[in-house]
Amino acid sequence: MTSLGTTVIQTRDLGKAYDDIQALQSLDLAVRQRSIFGFLGPNGAGKTTTIKLLLGLIRPTEGGATIFELDTVTDSVEIRTRVGYLAQNPRFYEHLTARETLDFTARFFFKGPDAAIEERAAEMLELAGLEEKADRPIKGFSGGERQRLGIAQAQVNYPDLLILDEPAASLDPLGRHDVLEIMERLRKHTTVFFSTHILDDVQQVSDSVAILNQGQLVAHGSIDELLASRGGVVFSVTMRGDVEAAQERVAGQDWVTNLRTHEQNGSTTWTVSVSDAEAAEARLLRLLLTDESLVVTDYGRKEYELEEVFIDIVEKASPDGAAPAEGGNLDRE
């Protein structure tokens, strides 16, 4: 049994090649217990290939990985008894109800009185918020309800690790919200490793993130660490009026490292990078307000979104300096 705070997933130089295509290269990851780990990358980055390697469904061509300190190649059967998995597009017996589906799945893992198995199925229906639809055939379920049922099915065996492959990729905003809410609730029970290319989802629920691009790991750390990786502190100022004199005055400050301007609809917006946040907070706005010809309409310290960081990292990592287009696919069966 893994103890709290230990590493659940560990990969070292993990790689997979298909003939002359290198789908995954020298991947080094560490996923801590009871965390939500976001595995992020454009379509075709190698995310599904990594998941197949972790589950022992394919063999690596270089390096290796352990889950619960067990080797994913030699101990894959033992590992899978402790892992719950949801594929990107889960399939169900359409004529069965949600309750029958969970009852059927639970019987593969548990032996004992029917009442105990039925209780477990009911517990998972409550987790997924499907109590009211528990006895309806799955063929009438929406995409979001199917994904929630899929998570409940993957969690039915009390896994120590839950692996979700693009769990919210095809859902509307309400469906995505429901799936993310379930993942948050599962944090106290298991470690959640989920792949996605939806940046908002990662920023909402993840403790740690890895960014994969063209089969290579290009960033790995906590959300805060990645957001801080843009470097420095940036302020945004929007104003109307004659900005020329004010721009010269602000740009001449020794704590200003860069000043970019953007004009739109009669207003000018500055993005001011600074080396000393305290000096900027104390003096930047004052330097502008001394000029009566200027009207400041918006001012504040810029908070970066993960999307900006992701695009920046991927563009720098791509050989041609551009982010790869969505829709490519190196993840092969």
Contiguous runs where pLDDT drops below 50 for at least 5 residues = 321-333
Question: Major sheet: size, sense and barrel closure?
Answer: 6 strands, mixed
Strand content: 25-35%
In round numbers, the mean pLDDT is: 87
Shape: elongated
Q: What structural class do the secondary elements suggest?
A: alpha/beta
Number of strands: 14
Oligomeric composition of the shown chains:
single chain
Helical percent range? 25-40%
Description:
It is a single chain. This protein has a six-stranded mixed beta sheet with strand order 6-7-8-3-9-10, sandwiched between helices. A four-stranded antiparallel beta sheet has the order 2-1-4-5. Strands 12-13-11-14 form a four-stranded antiparallel beta sheet, with helices on one face. The chain is α/β, with parallel strands linked by helices and 333 residues long. It has eleven helices and 14 strands. Strand 1 (7-18) and strand 2 (21-32) form a beta hairpin. Mean pLDDT is 87; it is low at 321-333.
Keywords:
six-stranded mixed β-sheet, 11 helices, single chain, four-stranded antiparallel β-sheet, alpha/beta, 14 strands, 333 residues, disordered C terminus
Topology of helices and strands:
Blueprint lengths: L6 E12 L2 E12 L3 E5 L6 H8 L7 E6 L2 E2 L4 H5 L2 E4 L11 H9 L7 H14 L15 H12 L6 E5 L7 H14 L4 E6 L2 H7 L2 E6 L2 E7 H6 L4 E8 L3 H8 L4 E9 L2 E8 L2 H13 L5 E7 L4 H12 L16
Parallel strand pairs: 3-8, 3-9, 6-7, 7-8
Antiparallel strand pairs: 1-2, 1-4, 4-5, 9-10, 11-13, 11-14, 12-13
Helix pairs in contact: 3-4, 5-6
